[in-house]
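Sat 14:20. Reprocessing the chain from the morning session after the first attempt stalled halfway. Input below, unchanged.
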Amino acid sequence: QVQLVESGGGLVQPGGSLRLSCAASGFTFSSVAMSWYRQAPGKERELVAAITDAGGITNYADSVKGRFTISRDNFKNTVYLQMNSLKPEDTAVYYCKAIMADTFRAYWGQGTQVTVSS
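Finished this time. Tokens:
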């Protein structure tokens, strides 16, 4: 059974940092590209960052380039999102996503709330 469990969200002041984690189980993590999405109130869910299965290629939304870094540890079956220089507009629920290479079925975590406010 595929499971994705996010953690690390919280309340942070503008300019601060947070590190999100997504622990994966139930599939061969090292064979699956992973991504982070976010959804702010009243807005559609959007892609924030993505990383290939071996971690060699990453991709970012323009709004987070230079501030966020996606990484993964294939020994710990975990993908991370380091968020620096946070802005109020980064406030959202952050989700990790996995798409199975054989079925192309997508799995989502339950999300973790990030609130950037003074």
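The chain has no helices and eleven strands.
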